[in-house]
Each structure stands twice: as C-alpha cells, then as structure tokens.
Give the backbone structure.
Amino acid sequence: MSVISNHMPTAELQALDAAHHMHPFTSNAALAKRGARVITRADGVYLTDSDGHQILDGMAGLWCVNVGYGRHEMAEVAARQMKELPYYNTFFMTTHVPAIALAQEVAKLAPEGMNNIFFAASGSEANDTNIRLVRTYWSVKGKPSKTHIISRKNAYHGSSVGSGSLGGMAYMHAQGGMPIPGIHHINQPDWWSEGGDMSRDDFGLARARELEDKILELGADNVAAFIGEPVQGAGGVIVPPDTYWPEIQRICRKYDILLIADEVICGFGRTGNWFGSQTYGISPDIMTVAKGLSSGYQPIGGSIVTDEIAEVMGSTEFMHGYTYSGHPVASAVALENLRIMQEEKIVEHARDVAGPALKAGLETLADHPLVGEISIKGMMASMPLTPHKESRAKFAAERGTVGTIGRDRSFANNLIMRHVGDRMVVSPPLVITEEEIDVLVSRARKALDETYQIVKDEGLLKPAS
Ligand code: PXG
C-alpha cells in the first residue's frame, strides 16, 4: 500500500486527488485543471496548506469547528474510547456509556422539556429521521393524514434524498429526482434580496404568513411540520426580520403543526446562545443538531425532541436507525467538546466578546463601495455585494460571478471567506480572539478592495435591469 504523506510535493498530491477522489458540490474536471488546495494541519483558527501558507479559517471548517483546531483533549478521549470500546450499536436492547452520557448532557443543555435525542451521524441523516419521525408521531396519535412538511426556498437541510428535498435549493432539486412528494417550499425571509419597498418588520410578517396560507391550502389536517433554520446558513446567512419567528411559532401552534428548528449550524453557540431557538425566543418541538455538537472532530448529529414526542414515539417501535447512531467514539468526543465549551465558557465568549467584536469589525466594511449591508447574528455574518447600495441592486453579470472573485481574492489573502451567490460569508471558530478578528477584517478589506478593482476593470459594476 502506498503511503500518502504530508511531505509529498503539492502537485503530486493534487494529481493523485484528481485521479481518484470525487469531491462534493464540485465540478471535478474543473477542479482537476486548477488543482485542489491541500490542507495539511490546523491549530486554533489557522489552517496550514501544503505550500506552508497560514490561512485564517473564517468558516470554522464548514460552520462546525466551534472550539477551534488542535484540541488534543479530543484526540486523547477518542484514543481512550477506541481502546476501550471502538464500536457497538444501540439497536437490539443495547446501549453503552458514551451514548448514555452524551444524551444526558445534551438534555441538560437543551431548552426545558427537550430531554431526548435520537442519534445520527450527520445533519442530513438527522433530518431524514425527522421526516419519518413527524409522520410516525402523527400516525401514532391517530392523525395519519398529517404527513406534509412545509419548508422554505433557499433553505439547506442536507444532501440526502430526504433532507435535500426538505432543503429549498433549486439547483439541487434539478439533479436526481428531488423533492420527494409531500414537501412544500414557501418564500424565505430575505429582506435584502426580496423585500422590495416593504419595511423589514412588515416583510418578516408577510413571509411568515405564507406559512398560514400554505397550511390552509393543504388543510391543517394534512400538515405534519414546518422546518426552518433559525438563521439560514448555506443560503447566505439570511438573518430574518425580528417579526418572523414569533409569527411562525404562533401559526404552528394555532394549527397544531410541529415546529422543527434545524440547529445544525445555529446550535452550540453560533448565534450567541446554546441554540438559535433561544436567540429568537422560540420553542421548537424538534431540533436538528450536528456540526458544533462535536465541533466537527467526529461525525455525529441527532434530533432532540420534546418530552411529549419522546413519550408518543416510545409507545411504538420506530423502525429507523443507523449503524452509527450514538457511535461510542463520536459520542465520547462530542461529550468532551461540550465539556470544553462549558468549562471555557465558549458560548459566553461568542456572545459577549467575539460576537460584538466581529460585528464592530465587519461594520467598518459597511462603507466599502461593494458592500450592501452587514448581516450578522452572533458569530455568523454575511455581506451582500452590490453595484448600487441604495437600490439594493443585483449585478447584471450572472449570479455568483462577483462573489467568486471575492472568494478567490480572500483565499489569495490567506482568509477563508466564502461566497453564496454574491454574498460574502464568514462564520469563524467561536474561540477566535479580538486580535484574530482584526486580522480577519483587515484581510477581508484587502480582498474586497482587490475585488472592486477587478470588477471595475472587467466592466462588471453594472446593475441588473
Ligand atoms: N442542516 C443545516 C442547517 C446545515 O447547514 C445540514 C443540515 C446537513 O448536515 P450534514 O452533516 O449532512 O452535511 C447542514 C449542512 C455550505 C454547506 O456550502 C453547508 C452544509 C453542508 C455542506 C455545505 O455552506 N450544511
């Protein structure tokens, strides 16, 4: 067997990668031409690539490395658990200590009355669980017609057939036969792009009331649940107007519809509280979690449910589960992650120090000619780029053209700041210090300045008509 080492020349690693590795959400032929960036190690908020660059990770991996890189305690816990019990399942009347301990800890941290978790290995799996769980729940309660699930356009809930159907990404639905039947998508609360002349608050209410319209259209007796991310992440950090979530909660209660908060990104401190639902003062029936549960050190996710749902589901046999539900090593590492977060008060740091510093830092970019506004909640932020701020205009060029330039200029300046269409997005590790935020902001400014120059030179500063 050949050994792949970190000391191989970059070009050789890239060629091997191109020869055998199919990347997610990537045109592999285009990547093969360009060559993938090879990340070799990481510590704190910095990545190192195979050419020795020190890159500030403004995305915490993929919105997940909340405690930062290089926490050796996690490695030690994983090694210890692997030696003691590397694997056992939680099917067939069996359990093990890491799953017991993690479930107890999650119950302690979750909002009151949410004391049970069904484990999965990812956010996609957990949302697949949710589809079957809400339908089974209503069936057990004697309301088998309640099967439809309402979601939103531009939502991201995963990439499996079920979770991808819950998501509202049209470009994903175009491939592979999604969405499955029984999933409906209403409009998102994106005031910047879609709010027109309405005030933010009026727009928030109007978009929430589309849920009521859809429920009435389908018939409340046919609707099982509504699902939404407290703040849409992959959709571009769309911070909803303050009026939005209370109205969604009111409508769900009025029509007896379960509310699923997809906390895969928002959960575990990202919005400045343990859960995004707490930031918005809502009481979901189910919360999807993954990513920050283990800070990405191990693949683990799950569905946290209310006591009432746990009781109803407990009265039947739910024919559902994954080989890695409650995986012992993943559970042990997630538990260690939660210990670190609590002992080092990382959520408090995000809320009181890093969040305000990130907001203040990014707001210094608000007067940049390309930046439309600073959209931020806690430690997730975005900046829509625009050729004309006052009218919130989009570019005449194809969506994402300018965003891609922004992303490339960020990478060239050793900052991972990604783009969603023409929005620039940051979501750094929660442990980032004020000094590191200064570095992030100054690299972002330089990237934006270079982007502006390119956009002007290439004649891209034209608004869409
Ligand atoms: N829900 C939400 C809110 C997510 O953000 C998932 C579910 C699915 O989780 P898994 O673990 O199955 O990936 C996610 C994942 C991006 C990007 O481009 C975002 C995610 C995944 C991949 C890419 O921003 N979020």
